[in-house]
Amino acid sequence: MTRTAVVAGVGPGLGAAVARRFAAEGCRVALLARSEPYLDSLAAELGDAEGEALGVPTDLTDAEAVESAFETVRETFGPTDVLVYNASGTPWKGLDIAVDEFDDALATGPRGALLCAKEAVADMLGSDGDGDDEAGTVVFTGATTSVRGKEGALGFSATKFAIRGMAQSLARELGPEGVHVAHVVLDGSIRPPDVVPGDPPTHLDPDAIAAQYWDLVTADLATMPFEVHLTNGPGGAVEFV
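^ that's the sequence the OP posted. Answer follows.
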């Protein structure tokens, strides 16, 4: 089946890798982020190489902007089948973080995740509020700080803990309706585009992460994994919880 996938929070690292993988699998891919020039460039690349892609410049912290972005996706590609929420942003600070910086982190993290989930899930459940057997997939990008706080990362830890809790709640709420909600713990740093892979690897491979995201989209509803823990340890350990 052809799916419409929204990747919210797209940069040259993981967001782009997920978009490329989903496009290669035949998805119509909508790219949501603030940087219009980058979105246009990536959408053109995907359109030339893989299929249909659409860049939608969006402030993910703004409820009206998110609503408008999803309406643009619906008008262009139809209702959303897959949402990947990949956005985050906070200074690496501890108690010295300013209150407005903390508020900004929460806005980009759990607030933006909530706004996008509301729009995407409304599409997945349809006008009658009930999903079909395979209503859709929502994937939240987590981090080491989703499961254990880190010194000097107060805002980032708070946002990632919050998103994990949201994902757990949504998985219980939406699973019976056929919506697969998953949370991916990225326990390590993601390899930047300009870094050559090491042997043994010292970074998580964004393309390998994207492949795991696609596995979540195509998982059997009878055995839906909720949490995937990815690390660049021996063998690139993967744990399904």
